[in-house]
Amino acid sequence: MKDFAREFYNSKAWRDVSTAYMTSHFYLCERCGNPATICHHKTYLNASNISDPNISLNPDRLECLCQDCHNKEHTLRRTITRFDDDGNIVGIKKSGAEKQYETDRDAFDALLKKMTSQNRSDLIS
Ligand SMILES: [Zn+2]
Ligand SMILES: [Zn+2]
To answer: Which end of the chain is more exposed for a tag (fewer CB within 10 A), N or C?
Structure first.
């Protein structure tokens, strides 16, 4: 989380708005229906729009997402283009968070593969 966002996410206003929004969606992901944990801003917040309640505290601009769909949303967006706080494209480099996400995902895939092959050999023997 960037510094400019920390104060916002800790504010009572945000906690009230996000809790009300998540509750109105029964804490279910709007994309896949799984239990949701994240209140995502459809308009990505930056240093200049975070203090505008029409953007940062507007339920029309929020989305109730599970961790998976939220990761996908941010990974996808970061891979295509990255913007600086003034909205200028700064490149398509992968961020540290995305690399971490890929590492976690690869580790999980490997684990899953291992478990699947173990189950198969159990069935055979
Ligand atoms: Zn989801
Ligand atoms: Zn988000």
So the answer is: C
Give pLDDT tens digits along the chain (125 positions).
557 788 899 999 999 999 999 999 999 999 999 999 999 999 999 888 999 999 999 999 999 999 999 999 988 765 555 566 666 656 555 556 666 666 666 766 676 666 666 555 555 54
- One DSSP character per residue, 88-101 reads -EEE-PPPHHHHHH
Domain ranges of the chain: 3-93, 94-125
33 conformational bin, left if phi > 0, alpha if psi -120 to 50, beta if neither: left
User: Which residues fall inside 5 Å of ion ligand 2, going by CB?
Assistant: 40
Q: 80: CA distance to ligand 1 center in Å?
A: 21
Sign of the torsion angle spanned by Cα atoms 83, 100, 3, 57: positive
Q: Which CATH number fits domain 3-93: 3.90.380, 3.40.1800, 1.10.600, 2.40.10?
A: 3.40.1800
Q: What is the pTM of this model?
A: 0.60
